[in-house]
Amino acid sequence: MARYLTLRYKLVVFTILMVTVIMATITYLYTIRELEAKRAATEEQITRIAQNIATLQLLDRQDWDVYQNYISQLMAFNQDIVYIAIYDHQSLLRAFTLNRDLIDLKRPRISRWEEARIVRRLDAGGVAAESRNDFRIVRVNIQMGNRILGSVHVGFSLININDNLRSGIVTNVLLALGFIVVFSLLSFYTSSRLVRPLEKLSAAMRSVRKGNLDLKIQPTTHDEIAQLTDDFNQMVEALRERRIIDKLGFELTASFQLDNLVRIIYHRLFNEVDTRLGVLYLSRRRQPNRFEQLRPSETGSSAGEELLLQPPTLQYLMEHSRGFRYQSLPEEIRNNLHLSGEFENPLIIPLIVREKLLGLFFLESKHADGFSRNQHHFLVTLANQVAVSLENALLYEEVREQERIKKEIEIARRVQQRLLPREMPHFPGYAIEGFCLPATEVGGDYFDFFTIDAEHLGIVIADVCGKGASASFYMAELKGMMQS
After folding, report:
1. Which tens digit of pLDDT belongs to each residue from 412-442?
2. Strands, E assignment, 284-330
3. 3-state SS assignment for residue 252
4. How far apart are CA 180 and CA 325, in angstroms?
5. Are 239 and 208 in contact (CB under 8 A)?
6. pTM of the model
7. Cα(264)–Cα(294) distance, rounded to whole angstroms?
């Protein structure tokens, strides 16, 4: 399984990169660029000094002492100048000065000739490799018209500038490291506060993926994460409701017996939602304005108190099929819907199927503020599903009752047929046939034959008043009377 970089560490890495970029920018803007500007300004200043020397134009008079005095004075006021050398047109060193404080001399006192040798070596680039970045040379020609009389060479040091640059970079690096540590700790702490709710959501999602829908996360913030938490809770609630609907729908559709449906409604439906108390009222088929309370019992379902609803109440219930709170009803209807002492302010949901009021749900919430809007909608959905199942169960009972009656009638018809003669009598000189076709499945028509003696045959024909099973029973009694 692939490993992912957590959001907490992403935030820490982002903070480190951000601090690094900021400090690098500060180092460039306020250290490197500033020192580069100082370096350029120093080089420009030295160039102007060399140009000023070149403008004396004394070489044609061979007055080297003037040059020597002038450059010696300049050296005293410019501590960054390492040496100043003036050459004639034949590149012979005529005047020079050397800043001994910037030269690593092996002896404290050296001769003038040795100083000249050091100046020539420096001017030729004879500088140690580690010091080359700290040393620069500016060369300016001494001209008179188009004629070059010589040149002025000024070597100067950038040690102070480079030292300041290195010191600034080191300082900035140390500051950057300090800021990285501080901001990393702050970022880790802040990200932990931000990521912890997301981690809870992630763990909850994994739990939901495993089938646990009994979850509810309490928001700990007041931002987008809290909104995301609320959305997650609503999603889980919707999934849980969907699971309840599917499971309850399967159980309801799998049973066509009213007793089983009543048991499922009380033991499953009322327990799946935050219901403290629930009651089902079902209408009588032959008295649609009478509703009797059904409760589950050990032997099936038992009927309780009845509601006799008046036409205004029936019309109100048909017009408000989405349910309503008891206390919101008009007084006339509230009085007609007799409220048991167990209820306070229940939610009443009419059970309507094919524009007929089949029953009523009385549901009392466990919470003082009643059912939420989502719970109300969920209960209405379940009630509609229950109404269809109850209608199917009642139709099934009617069909089953009709089948039972049909079987009883079939048995009565067979009994009636057995009461009629199975064989016609054989009497010399006569051909006798008899047949009975009742107007309904069972009738009261009767005929029979009785042998009186060898020459006489008795014939009985009767028509009992009425039709159906009762007439057939009278016919059986008549047969018994005739036989006796």
Report:
1. 777 777 777 878 888 777 888 888 777 666 6
2. 290-297, 300-308, 324-325
3. helix
4. 61
5. yes
6. 0.50
7. 12
